[in-house]
Amino acid sequence: MSETAAGPVDTEPTTPIDASIDPAGRVDELRSAIEHHDHRYYVLAEPEIPDADYDDMLRELRSLEEQHPDLIVPDSPTRRVAGRPATTFAEVRHAEPMMSLDNAADADELRAWGERTRRRLAQHDLHETDVGYVCELKIDGLAVSLRYERGQFTQGATRGDGRVGEDVTENLRTVADIPERLAVDAPPEVLEVRGEVYLSLAEFAAINREAEAAGTHMYVNPRNTAAGSLRQKDPRVTASRRLSFWSYQLGIRQGGPELSSHHETLAWLAELGFPVNPEHRVLATLDEVEDYCRHWQEHRHDLAYEIDGVVVKLDDLARRAVLGATSRAPRWAIAYKFPPEERTTILRDIQVSIGRTGRATPFAVLEPVFVGGSTVSMATLHNQDQVALKDVRVGDTVIVRKAGDVIPEVVGPVLAERAPDAEPWVFPTACPRCGEPLVRPEDGADHRCLNLACPARVAGTIEHFASRGAMDIEGLGERTTELFTSLGWVSDVGDLYSIDEALLGELEGFGDVSVRNLLSAIEASKDRPLANVLVGLNIRHVGGTVAELLAGHFGHLDRLAAADEEALAAVDGIGPTIAESVHRWFRDPANLAVLDKLRAAGVNLEGPEQTADVARTLEGRSVVVTGTLEGYSRDEAEAAIKARGGKSPGSVSKRTFAVVVGDGAGASKLTKAEDLAIPVLDEAGFEALLETGELPVSVAPDASGEEAS
Hints:
With 709 residues, the chain is an alpha+beta fold. Helix content is 35%, strand content 18%. The protein has 24 helices and 21 strands. The protein starts with 22 loop residues before the first helix and ends in a 17-residue tail after the last helix. Residues 1-16 and 702-709 have low confidence and may be disordered.
């Protein structure tokens, strides 16, 4: 909420209001709720609702005030900076107010802000189109102000209500990114630097691992954890949280160079020793600004910290002065907000699903809510301990989080809205599919159904066998698998190869084309590499990497099946745990019967061709392949890299040696390769790399470290 409040009446479109409501009553209700949530967020650092829900309340209040001006009061939340300083620390009165930012929820609102800016500047015979913008990532953290006198850090404060904040100087001294002295010989007499304290994703995960190991309360998100960490009474606790800091603005200053633009300001901050986010950009037009916002909305999860939008500012400081500010926000800046990844909704039920390994996973049945770019009606609750720790109950208003491609999860309940008669949820004792007992090992966190014939386990095993990472049988998804198992046609993966075409054609929804396509996909799967078969067999601890090691070492499924534990453990990369699991699987008569069906159906059980005579030209190097190559399938390209001693990961990192690009290549991989200055090869360059291990001259770094032209 620190930079998310809706703006004054001239900055955002009106939200339609239900004509049946009492405006005065609703205004009072909204103001009361907003004040409550401001106190939870700014004073207690314990927010109950996501920012997006808070923003919606402010938007509705603003719309009501627009439509009923007689209801406006001077201290309305739409006309002041949110938040009040707490009483835990001494008060600090800001020499210049720390203001909020108005919001743009989409490109139309961003352009509307741009048009308002142009009109205001035109009134002063100025034109912003030849000035440009600076775009910065909107860090999801806590705004602070740092005061330096004659180069020495003397005071640090939170934003508070924008006029008065809290003195957290000693806690800020523990943040390694904040310099104790300015890195210049002749510092300004007084300098105020503003920025964001945040917690990196890695540190947040580490803190939660420590909390889980200690059996204490786990933290909801990095922003709240950072806020609570900064407001600890003991600075040693703050130091243990390993907070970070980005600088982005100046407050008052006495001395220093003449600055005419914001990008010059950021450069000077870096010279003084402050960290400045490297992703900021100076852009000439709103079209470029939109592209920047769109890029980071797509790549927000590529970063090591959380962002929730982009801050767009006019670059020219003189024009900023002309534009000025409203009572709560500058007119020369706006926050372009990304779609929310957290929203509240109603928890309708808690049910349990059974996976292919028998794992029993509780999940939430939700009132559908749009979050993270899609409508979510179900979310994971992980296991019994997580349900108990979060204490979510049927009927609760809950916070739901969906970040990128991550499975939606319930973060926790909004306790203030819990019904008095809500009962704690109790984990079931019997499998919901087969009725057999659910068992939880003493040293485990998960309950499991141990019945191998459980319909849910059978269906899950078959669906896994057909998945892309295994046998890649297109058209054989969850619904079709459930249908086939319920009809009794398929009791294990071997039965897939004897499905009757005539019976399949009699099913509702299966026309001639869909029947032909499915049977063709099943037939094509017979030629998959042995490693894919091993993945599909659902052997515990055998994923793609282990499967390739086993297939490459033994060369045939029958030799692998006959190996003892000692021979399995002797394979490079296979430890005793995996060896024991594989050996046990091949000693189970039911599994051997499945292998007989696969063998009879003509499924490939032969390992990869021997590659001993292939030169190890890529020993220890990582080569990423993206897009479609003419001469290689994706599997063949990866196999060619690995046969030469290389690795073929699915993502680009600083350790990547080269990126091979085919048709339809992913933009995110290309962008990251460019950002990291990693060589990009076409198919011809790839083939040369395989043969020689050397990069083509056109992309190879020269002796100075620059790429050749």
